[in-house]
Hints:
By secondary structure, the protein is an all-beta fold. The protein has 2 domains: about 1-45, no CATH class; about 50-115, CATH 2.40.50. About 0% of the residues lie in helices and about 40% in strands. It contains no helices and 8 strands. The protein has a 5-stranded mixed β-barrel with strand order 4-5-6-8-7.
Amino acid sequence: MSERLADWTKGEQAITFQTCGACGHVQYFHRAFCAACGAADPRARRASGRGRVYATSLVCRAATPETRALVPYNILLVDCPEGFRMMAHGENGLAIGDTVTASFKPFAGKLVPFFTKEA
């Protein structure tokens, strides 16, 4: 069975990813196998929480009643130095190429990664 580390999806203030012991592939979405080579039990690792903005989109229309009071909010794609890309929330005004750091904030009743620009 693959190693499990708690992360933001389980309420802990951490971002985790997996690496394959057989081929070295890095994957953000946790699976019981490597998405590149199929090897079983990739190893869970904790990410640094740093990254660079790859894309940004300001959400101005609420997708659900729970998020109506929260618009506008910024959704990012962040390239992390560990070798994976993730989607997360971020402060408004971030631009492609900005270097960012994650913290964690409540959003519609859940704890989510929230990136801010590094000084």
